[in-house]
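Title: Comparing notes on inverse folding

I've been comparing how different people in this forum approach sequence design from structure. To keep things fair, I'm posting one structure and asking everyone to reply with a full sequence. Here's the target:
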């Protein structure tokens, strides 16, 4: 029930905002407006910007999952969030989404392979 209430609060808050402004307004202002909605944190705000509003110009690169992705891709020490933003500029959100999603797929495949290998070993 809590999830339904949270979803209702987010959707109600979003419906009160002007969609054209959300798609075209200054990125920092739009981001701040999304964060001001009850139930919306940095990850959700960026997901809305990228997936709903088509705005790949922002990404929460400071979050652990993106730091891990940068380390997996570029090695240790990873590039800083500022460096990634410089390299990818207005498409940084797509980098973050693709990096995280791709690494998740690889990790899932590795876990499935490990399970299958363990099952083969047990079976003899």
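Reply #1:
Here's my take.
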């Amino acid at each position: 029930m809590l999830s339904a209430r949270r979803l209702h609060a987010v959707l109600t808050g979003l419906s009160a905002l002007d969609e054209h402004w959300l798609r075209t307004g200054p990125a920092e202002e739009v981001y701040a407006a999304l964060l001001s909605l009850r139930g919306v944190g940095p990850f959700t705000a960026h997901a809305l910007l990228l997936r709903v509003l088509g705005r790949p110009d922002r990404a929460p690169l400071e979050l652990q999952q993106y730091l891990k992705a940068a380390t997996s891709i570029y090695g240790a020490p990873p590039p800083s969030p500022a460096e990634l933003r410089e390299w990818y500029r207005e498409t940084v959100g797509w980098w973050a989404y693709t990096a995280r999603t791709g690494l998740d797929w690889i990790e899932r495949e590795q876990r499935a392979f490990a399970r299958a290998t363990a099952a083969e070993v047990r079976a003899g």
